Every structure is written in C-alpha cells, then in structure tokens.
Amino acid sequence: MTPLLQVRDVSKLYGGRIGCGDVSFDLYPGEVMGIVGESGSGKSTLLNCLAGHLVPDSGQVIFDTRADGPVDTVTMSEPARRMLGRTDWAFVHQHAREGLRMGVSAGGNIGERLMAVGGRHYGNIRASAQDWLGRVEIDADRIDDRPSHFSGGMQQRLQIARNLVTGPRLVFMDEPTGGLDVSVQARLLDLLRGLVREMGLSALIVTHDLAVVRLLADRLMVMKDGHVVESGLTDQVLDDPQHAYTQLLVSSVLQV
Amino acid sequence: MSLMDDYNFAYLDEQTKRMIRRAILKGLAVPGYQVPFASREMPMPYGWGTGGVQVSAATLTPDDTLKVIDQGADDTTNAVSIRKFFERTAGVATTEETTEASIIQTRHRIPEVDLTEDQVLVYQVPIPEPLRFLEPRETETRKMHSLEEYGLMHVKLYEDISRHGNISTAFAYPVMVNDRYVMDPSPIPKFDNPKMEMAAIQLFGAGREQRIYAVPPWTKVVSLDFEDYPFEASKADHSCELCGSDSSYLDEVILDDAGNRMFVCSDTDYCRSRREAGHQGRLAGETV
Ligand SMILES: [Zn+2]
C-alpha cells in the first residue's frame, strides 16, 4: 500500500536554533498518528511544516494526491497546495476562533469549503451544513447563529464540522482538546474517535495530553528538542517506554 | 478663466496624470484587477469622490464634454461641485445630457441610456475590495484574488439568504469580470449590473484606498449568485410617475408631511428627455 503521507528528513531552523530536525515517517491511509512532547519540543513546528503553513528548510512532505499520486507538497505550486488545504486536507486549530469565521453563521462556516470548491446550490449547501451540525451534536436550529454565541466545546465541534464537510483524507489537529474543561474534552474525544472510524480518516494529532493519544492514535512519535526520540504503536510506547524521556513523560512527571 | 493660469490643466500636474494613466492602462489590460496608485490630496474631502476626480482629471482632454451625476442626478451638491471644479481647473464644456458627454463621472448609478464606444464612464468608489466584508486582512485578500479563491464571496451571499430569505444585497453587488476577477462595481443598485457589459470604457477610482480598476468595452461581467437563487436586476415595481417609464430605476420621493410618496426616475436627464419627447406619467404636469 502507498503511504498517504511520506515525511522525509524535514527540518526547520529558527535563526540557528532547531525547530524540528530530520523528522521522517510514513502515514498510511486510515491511520492516526499522535505527536507528543512538551511545549518547545518542536511538535507544533513539525505539524505546521507538514500542513504547509511553514516552509521547511529541508526535507520532503510527499502526499498521495487523488489526481497525480505522490507529490512533494513542499515544492508544489502555492495554488495547488492551498487547493489541497481546502479539499483533501483539513486543519483543526487549538483555538476555535482561529479556525472559524466568528462573524459568519454556523451554516456559513460549514458551507465555506463547499463553496470554495464550486458549490453553487444554496439548498444543497444548507442541507450539508444541517447534516454536519447533527454529526457534531449541535442542534440544527443553531444553523443561523454565529459561533460567538457558542460555548467553547460547541465552537470546537463546529470547527471540526467545517473541516470535515468536504471529506478530507488527512486531518491535522493541533491540541484539539486544549483549553477545554475535562468533561467537554471527553465528549469531544468521543466524537472525534467516532468520526475518524466512520470516515476512515487519516490524522496527525499534536498534543501534550497522553490521554488524547491513548484514545485516538494508532501510532505515536515522542519529540524532544526538535527531534523524534521514540516512536511505535501507541500502547507499546505508553506501556513500555524505551527512551528515558518517554519514561519521564509517561510517569507524568513532565505532564503540563 | 483666471484659475486656469494658476493651475495645471485639470488641477493635477502632468507627472501625476501620467502615473494615473499608467494605472488606468494596466487596469484596462487586466479587467477587474485593482491597480494600486499614489492617490493625491485633492481640494475636497475623501467622501466626495477624490478617486473618481483623479481618474477624470487624468482622462480629460480640452475637447471633452463632462457630465457629473450623483445618484442619477446632475444637480446635487456633490455633482455640482465636481462639475464646477473641472469647469474652473480644466475649462472643459459640461453638460447634463448623457448623449452629449464624452466623459461621465458617476456616483451610485449607470445612466439609463445605452452608452457608446465614444464615451468613458468614471465611477467613484468608496471601498474597492469586495472580499473585505469577510476577510479584513489585505495580504489575504490579495492572495485570494491572485489565486482565484472566491468561495468567500458566496459565503456572503449564503449569509444573505439564510438571514433574509433571498440575496438582500441591493447595492455594490459583486460581479465576476472576464471570468477572472471578482470586482465591487461601487454602490450602484444591482439593477444596473447587467448594463456593465457596455460599449463604453468603465474606469473605477478609489481615492482613500488608492486603487484604480477598469472594465474595457463589451467585457463579460457576471453577477454572482446561486443556481437556486439566481441573480435578479430588481427595481421598484412601479413606473415613473413623471415620464411613465416602466424600465428605468426609480427613486421613492416623499411628497409631503402626510406621507404621500411618488416614484420617479433616479436618472434625471433620462426622465426629462422622455418628458420633452412627450411621454407622460401618472402625475405629469403637477409640480414637485
Ligand atoms: Zn421618469
């Protein structure tokens, strides 16, 4: 099977300091990879390099496109990369207000990606928005409300709906449960797990929260000082950590 | 004509006019694209159409005949003062008759009479960026234009329908120019949008925002819409009560304290010429 994403020796420096260094891995269709580490470990830098928000200094990020097969997204044209960003890729931000248009109704937020790829039938767009509100457990009668009137958990669920409406194949998530109350987190994780299974999504999830990866990730990479220090199946890494730093993380000494 | 000796022709110096003409030519070469230009201080406040005035100044020649309209009328303060400005600084002939003018500067309307290939229509533009409503970052809107990412424009129309049951945008209704650039046609009523595929050259000037854009003759101009909510060039469902026209864009005028109203052509020259030709509306002959 062709990997959906092949990451090869991706490095990003910040004025001589390593953001992330020589990261390589494959992600297969339907697989969820967790990337864990403390703040400053380079996990967010890596995610942004992979999602095209930052340009890596070196390395390749090869995505198996629908039309042309594996293509290095670092060197592809910007229009093509941005097109990927609103079709086959999705990005869920930690802070929902970064990923939502706060001045636009919930329905408009969900419909935007459909319209961005040429959706021109209002009734169909609205029906999709309604359907997706249901799938992320938001009442259909909130469709014309602005997300500024939503709770934090609802905003995050709306952001997920807005991202998944075009049926992306790869979802980047940056601390998707960060900043939410514990009970709200649990519900969101449940929802995410259901959607990932149901849609057969592939995902890269950056988090400092081991409970998140335990629940969602098939595989795990542990990052420290910009480098991957350990990787493997999630249960294996968490239950039998080999690297001293991972052992510290798991023993929760370093959990933020 | 003493002011003619004090000022350069049409107020602006030759170098500035050349700079503006270059922006106009670039705009004509790339229809609908917003060309940045170094807008100059004009002896009038920004809301008074300084962008249009600069475009007119760079376009006028001594042989031109200028018409200035504001909401369709030649006699508003704004139109009168711009007309006087060019009478004094350029000494050009002015007219209120659309068919007599070679350059027409306008705010908020396109004349009812079809313009010809010998004419130039100059629009005053307050906000040239149609995407600003939903995306305030200029760096991002420029990128959206350059990459033709216009989904956001339909989000605005979606919001209209979800809130009002139909596309309620009645002015500055966004258009796609030449299958490439989404453009703000300035706050003309959407009734005027279909007229933009015309024989005359259309130039747009935004003074405060320092942008010029253009639509060459017979360029394709399509109003954005949804398949199930198609664009409609709507107007008040009446005919003009002075000249009887049932096809012109109408203003609703309040007649008295009792709340009596009447509908009249917003294009005053069009209405007058129809009446002079013998057409009569319901209230023709009464003084207003
Ligand atoms: Zn009339």
CATH domain class of chain A: Alpha Beta
Indicate the mean pLDDT of chain B: 94
Distance between the termini of chain A: 38 Å
Query: Bound small molecules, which ones?
Result: zinc ion
Rounded radius of gyration of chain B (Å): 19 Å
- Helix/sheet category of chain A: alpha/beta
Distance between termini of chain B? 36 Å
The assigned structural class of chain B equals alpha/beta
Domain module tally of chain A? 1
Sheet with most strands: strand arrangement of chain B: 1-9-8-5-4-2-3
Helix content of chain A: 25-40%
Arithmetic mean of pLDDT of chain A:
94
What count of helical segments of chain B does DSSP give? 7
Q: How many beta strands in the DSSP annotation of chain B?
A: 12
Q: What radius of gyration of chain A results from the CA coordinates?
A: 18 Å
Largest interface: A-B, 25 and 16 residues
Report on this model:
The complex is a heterodimer of chains A (256) and B (288). Chain A is α/β, with parallel strands linked by helices. Chain A has one domain: Rossmann fold. Chain A is built from 10 helices and 10 strands. Chain A has a 6-stranded mixed β-sheet, with helices on both faces. A 4-stranded antiparallel β-sheet of chain A has the order 2-1-4-5. In chain A, helix 4 packs across helix 5 (122-135) and helix 4 runs parallel beside helix 6. Chain B is of the alpha/beta class. Chain B is 27% helix and 17% strand. In chain B, the strands form 3 sheets. Chain B has a 7-stranded mixed β-sheet with strand order 1-9-8-5-4-2-3. In chain B, strands 7-6-10 form a 3-stranded antiparallel β-sheet, with no helix packed on it. In chain B, strand 2 (65-70), helix 4 and strand 3 form a beta-alpha-beta unit. The radius of gyration of chain B is 19 Å and the shape is globular. The mean pLDDT of chain B is 94. Chains A and B meet through helix 2, helix 4 and helix 5 of A and helix 6 of B. Zinc ion binds at residues 240, 242-243, 245, 248, 264-265, 271, 274 of chain B.
